[in-house]
Amino acid sequence: MMIVKKTRKVYPLLNVLRLMRVAKPLIGVRGAFEFYTAPIKWLVNLGRLRYRELLPPHLLLNTKYGLFYTHASNIILLFQEVYEVENIMPKLVGKDTVFVDVGAYLGFYTIWACRRARRVISIEPNPVALAYLKVNIALNECSNAIIVPKALSDRRGYTKLKIPKETEEGRIPTVSSIVLDYKEAFEVEVETDTLDSVLEEVGVDSVDILKIDVEGAEGLVVRGAEKTLKEAKAVLIEIWPENMWVARYLKNSGYKLAEIIGKGVSKNYLFIRR
Length: 274
Hints:
This protein has 274 residues and is of the alpha/beta class. The protein folds into two domains: 2-78; 82-273, Rossmann fold. It has ten helices and 13 strands. It has helices at 2-19, 28-44, 75-78, 82-92, 108-114, 127-139, 195-201, 218-223, 226-231, 245-252; strands at residues 23-25, 58-63, 66-71, 98-102, 119-123, 145-148, 151-152, 157-164, 185-193, 209-212, 234-239, 255-261, 267-273. The strands form three sheets. A seven-stranded mixed sheet has the order 6-5-4-10-11-13-12, with helices on both faces. A three-stranded antiparallel sheet has the order 1-2-3. The radius of gyration is 19 Å and the shape is globular. The relative contact order is 0.11. The model is unreliable at 1-7 (pLDDT under 50).
């Protein structure tokens, strides 16, 4: 049991060490010193301190994916889908591409795509994540990106967005869901809409690439995207076990499953139109 606990403490450190190969902090000499010496401090403390407690509270990072401003507690989540961006997205996104980022979070996919695609629609309902998303879009001068502050569903209206408090770990609450239950959570009323309706409102006639990551609400998004899914060339979607019918639905809608990424409870599924 002790080994498991120590492994869990080491895991975030390994992720940030990987990040250091591609990220440079833009937070002054003192901030850079804290960023690069954090692994040494962690080792000296033998893991008694959480790694993010050794970092400056907020980080401004210059990476090969773009500029990102984030709280130290969210650095792992922000960059956890590097594989998808490095190995899948370059094959799908080009200068004429219309890319839709459903569940944009802090903007990892959005920032990467805005430098390469013709147009990016970035959809995120969580007010905390939305604040960081707006900053990151501004930092990268993504003039071709549109932010839609809504939760996608199968109908228009309003619903409760649940945001886990996670105060016991000192995290900034940026993950959220309109369907999942958390032990302790804030509830914020947010506007819901269908993807078909949102795209019509922002003047998008057709979508090339659709990325969906909505913490268990992927079924609702798919039900509200009938028109969009008839035209999209590829769909990269996180699917939770209770929503595996979504994979069958996409296969029956003219897509073929090209790849499955991830080993956790939920995985990313890449579908390409036949």
